[in-house]
Amino acid sequence: MIFDLVNQDGETIRTLDTLKYFSIDLNNNDFGHFAIFQLNDRQGFYAINSQEEILFHVFNISIGEPNPDYLIENKIRIIDESGRIGFANQKGEIVIEPQFEMVTSFFENKAIFGVGCKIAYLHKSEKETEFNHTKIQCSQYGYINENGKVMEIGDYSFEQIVDKIQWRPTI
Fold this sequence. Notes:
seven-stranded antiparallel β-sheet; 1 helix; mainly beta; four-stranded antiparallel β-sheet
């Protein structure tokens, strides 16, 4: 398989080395100034620019299966080496530094975040080959604005903060 980076007019600007990249994000998203790939020498998905520079590690939206985040309200979730989550924009610029244990995508310029989070099993399989159903539970929830400013945090459940700010998933 050949991977080409193209400009907004559909013209090829760079053909990528297939020994370096083994999977492209097929979410049919227009990321603008970057593309998302899995790299042969790293785990997860990474955003690269047209010079093949790695911009950031893209957040995986599914536990246990490869599924990179989407660009929503001009923001995509990214992660740092410690697993903290932040956001980058369509230009590939980090606009909210990774700092959250758990954070949703944005809806109407608000994203929900959690503090004191852990993975809870709703169903844990006895066999390693079977799928485990999990949920992230946090001791506190709050929400941020489009600039990453914490607007509120407290002893809310996820459902309570969703209702409070009328947040809805867009995917």
